[in-house]
Amino acid sequence: xxxxxxxxxxxxxxxxxxxxxxxxxxxxxxxxxxxxxxxxxxxxxxxxxxxxxxxxxxxxxxxxxxxxxxxxxxxxxxxxxxxxxxxxxxxxxxxxxxxxxxxxxxxxxxxxxxxxxxxxxxxxxxxxxxxxxxxxxxxxxxxxxxxxxxxxxxxxxxxxxxxxxxxxxxxxxxxxxxxxxxxxxxxxxxxxxxxxxxxxxxxxxxxxxxxxxxxxxxxxxxxxxxxxxxxxxxxxxxxxxxxxxxxxxxxxxxxxxxxxxxxxxxxxxxxxxxxxxxxxxxxxxxxxxxxxxxxxxxxxxxxxxxxxxxxxxxxxxxxxxxxxxxxxxxxxxxxxxxxxxxxxxxx
Length: 347
Hints:
The chain is α+β, with helices and mostly antiparallel strands. The chain contains ten helices and 14 strands. The strands form five sheets. A six-stranded mixed sheet has the order 11-6-1-2-3-12. A two-stranded antiparallel ribbon has the order 4-5. The longest helix has about 30 residues, at about 1-35.
């Protein structure tokens, strides 16, 4: 009986030792041949992080691998509209608009720049529009200086610019030409509010709110209209100008072919008796971008607000207060990056 108990005890002890030994061996084999779930998770996270890093850092992604939404060339255009101001007896660039055709994102971006944007001139505060009013020794407007100032303030490159005067009826001629080519009396536009006013220089305006056909004269009167002198009134006018120009651009590029677009360009810069249009655009420039603008229907229109607010500043020399638009530079830089404006090359 005693011998039997010893046999049972020996068997149990041997069995436990064997189980312990085989467990260690089995664990080692599992470590070697079975996949490690923790490592897999870690590797998966690393792969995700690497993908995010490539997306957030475009410098690490070859440009050739970025697929364009529109198969054409990206470019940025600056439009400047000035008008005669009877109260100050000279022209003033009261409409400054950036139009950015981004083929990479498939967006055409409209960014109106406040004419009263605060800038420095001869170490003193002035507004952006006043720079355009300065003339060169030849007597022409200081367009190059205005373009340089905008490029510097926004840290972007402007490919082309077109500056024109409402007083010379350049815009009115184009609107009427659009009407004659399309068989209508002008351009269809949704007037945002009732407008009624008489001015000895700018004439009479009487437009009702709503969608209607505008002749060149009516469109010019609408763009000249100022309902009031508050900050909101001027912001409202900037928005009206940019949206009307977007409608005009869309109408021309959607409805007309290459030949008609060239006709519109000729009408805009050379159709009047007064040569008031200043541009670095020529026939070759227009032809080089026809492939972009004639695909307008593929672009999504985006209307942006220039970030910042109007503030009152005191002129140290005259002690007089004046209101300027003060830009929010950080928000502006983010905005321009988000919408793919090309950064200015630092010389």
